[in-house]
Amino acid sequence: MTETGLMAHGEQPAQLPPYCAILVVDVKDFSGRRGRDHAALTDAIPGILRQAFQRAGLAEMWSEAVFGRSTGDGYAMGLRSALLPFLINPFLPALQEEIAYRNGVDAQSQPLRMRVTIHVGPVTSTGADLLSEGSGEARVVAHRLIDAPAVRDLLSRCGPVTCVAAIVSARAYEDAVVSGYAADDPSLYVPAPVEVKSFQGTAYLRVPAPSGDLLASGFRVAGPEPDITASVPPAAEVPGSFRVGGVGDISGSNNMTITDPRGPVHTGSGAQHVGPKFSGDRVNYVDGANSGTMGNGDNPPRRRSSPR
């Protein structure tokens, strides 16, 4: 950036905020629950996450969070970027187990299920527990990913035993999964195009315990559909005269073909038939020129059978 550009915008270079591993969870169909149950569920979400960390043997990670905020129907938290692989494995399977356990103990009519986003990027962290902690573009991306239709579709096509459907950003996938740090096989992930508001990109779907249609039909991540309304370019004009269908005179240049929905039509002068002529009883033959003759040939002599 030039000095003039700096003065025009009134900005100076600034330090990049620390990179953080970002975890966002969202309860499926939160708004479909009774209003009187919302507050209790909102208060319960942090405890569920804390127990999942403990189940995974990562209890200290909860206490080391850079930030943690309720979103009403979910929760968002940040951790040191070095801990990113552990959010993927073993935390995701542990969260699936923790929610399944709670659903079994508390047999409610609507089992608890969660969408999960895992991302990594620079976000603010002052250590002063400000409301703005964890602000930045990376935080926005994490919340866009959790609203992606691709991850919403997963929980709508599986049974209640599937409690967790995760969407991992491309950056987190490459840094933690492809690199091998998460010790989670990349073949367990399915890439999916994501377009939510102004965000466009690719993310990776992960379901620790798939069921229902996810097992029968897979994740069914569809790409953009072709535009079937696109106009078909008109066929090139052919010099000379021609007739579509029926029988009539044909004229024009040699060796030309008119394309018609009912099949190709040859135009022009010259031989219409290439190869030997055929003759025989009730077999038509065509002479070489356009103006040639057509008719029945003489009966061919019968072939004598050879003596046995």
3D structure, described in words:
This is Guanylate cyclase domain-containing protein. Helix 2 (35-55) packs across helix 4. With 308 residues, the chain is an alpha+beta fold. The protein has a domain at 17-217: 2-Layer Sandwich (Alpha-Beta Plaits), CATH 3.30.70.1230. Strand 8 (256-258) and strand 9 (265-267) form a beta hairpin. The strands form 3 sheets. The protein has a 7-stranded mixed sheet with strand order 2-3-1-4-5-7-6, with helices on both faces. The protein has a two-stranded antiparallel ribbon with strand order 8-9. A two-stranded antiparallel sheet has the order 10-11. It has 8 helices and 11 strands. Helix content is 28%, strand content 20%.
CATH topology value of the domain at 17-217: Alpha-Beta Plaits
CATH architecture of the domain at 17-217: 2-Layer Sandwich
Main sheet overview: 7 strands, mixed
Order of helices and strands: HEHHEEHEHHEHEEHEEEE
CATH class category label of the domain at 17-217: Alpha Beta
From the alpha carbons, calculate the radius of gyration and give it in angstroms.
35 Å
| Share of helix, binned | 25-40%
For the biggest β-sheet, the strand order reads 2-3-1-4-5-7-6
Poorly predicted tracts of residues: 224-228, 250-254, 283-298
Q: What is the multimeric organization of the chains shown?
A: single chain
Q: What structural class is derived from the secondary structure elements? A: alpha+beta
- Beta-strand portion reads 15-25%
Write out the CATH superfamily name of the domain at 17-217: Nucleotide cyclase, GGDEF domain
Region (Disordered): 263-308
Protein name: Guanylate cyclase domain-containing protein
Organism: Kutzneria buriramensis
